[in-house]
Design goal:
The chain is 33% helix and 18% strand. The longest helix is centred in the middle third of the chain and has 14 residues. The protein has an eight-stranded mixed β-sheet. The radius of gyration is 17 Å and the shape is globular. It has eight helices and eight strands, in the order ββαβαβαβααβαβααβ. The two termini are 31 Å apart. By secondary structure, the protein is α/β, with parallel strands linked by helices.
Length: 229
């Protein structure tokens, strides 16, 4: 598996777990507000696999978990073998995904390879291509979310509350999903790197925390476990 970035220790990315965060390159979406665009355009610096393995072996017993994020990890051909090797070191695994590879998630579930999942649900179904780029399909992400819900595993759904989404959009998104155990609303922060033609969208004013809390309250009847970060 190719690793394009690493946070050696995080208390924020894996609920209740001290974890290392690994960023993998490549994604099948092109969200205009992506914070990891260097993983999409090939400008990331690849970390040699042996260096990742050596670090994880050294920190086994000090760190509890490994978060695999991206980019989109389910596109990585070596994902399964990497997770198996990291689990053998004693780590718990969290996988972040955009939900576009439900068959891969199903195989991960069948092997019991991940302890926690996070799925990004980007926009109401009718606006998915507008937000995520051509070919994006909300129904595929919903299939992945339904698989996780039916499996009864620990997972969360995440939405970045970009300025282009309003209360009506977020309530619609809450209605489109099965009830999930944790629905995180994350604030929008302007990315450092973005495509020039997206400047106007990028420069839109972010919502305040008070506004996001109001959105969460409106979503609550449909998703009781919604949390405004």
């Amino acid at each position: 598996m190719t690793v394009g970035g690493m946070v050696k220790s995080s208390l924020l990315d894996f609920p209740g777990i001290i974890a290392c965060v690994l960023f993998v390159p490549g994604c099948n979406y092109n969200c205009f507000y992506c914070h990891n665009r260097q993983l999409l355009d090939g400008s990331e610096t690849v970390i040699p696999t042996q260096d990742v393995d050596a670090f994880l072996k050294k920190r086994a017993g000090q760190l509890d978990g490994v978060v695999i994020t991206g980019g989109e990890p389910t596109l990585q051909p070596g994902l399964f073998s990497f997770i198996r090797s990291v689990r053998a070191m004693g780590y718990q695994i969290k996988l972040d995904t955009n939900g576009t590879r439900p068959d891969t998630v199903r195989e991960l579930l069948q092997e019991g390879l991940c302890d926690y999942y996070a799925v990004d649900y980007k926009a109401p179904a009718a606006r998915y291509e507008e937000i995520c780029g051509g070919g994006a399909d909300a129904s595929i992400a919903r299939k992945t979310i339904s698989l996780l819900a039916e499996a009864g595993v620990a997972f969360e759904v995440r939405t970045t509350v970009i300025p282009q989404l309003g209360e009506e959009d977020l309530v619609q998104m809450a209605k489109e999903l099965p009830m999930v155990p944790r629905y995180m609303l994350n604030p929008y922060r302007k990315p450092l790197k973005y495509l020039p033609h997206d400047r106007d969208r990028i420069e839109q004013k972010p919502y305040s925390r008070e506004e996001i809390l109001r959105f969460a309250e409106a979503m609550h009847p449909f998703q009781p476990y919604v949390i405004a970060k």
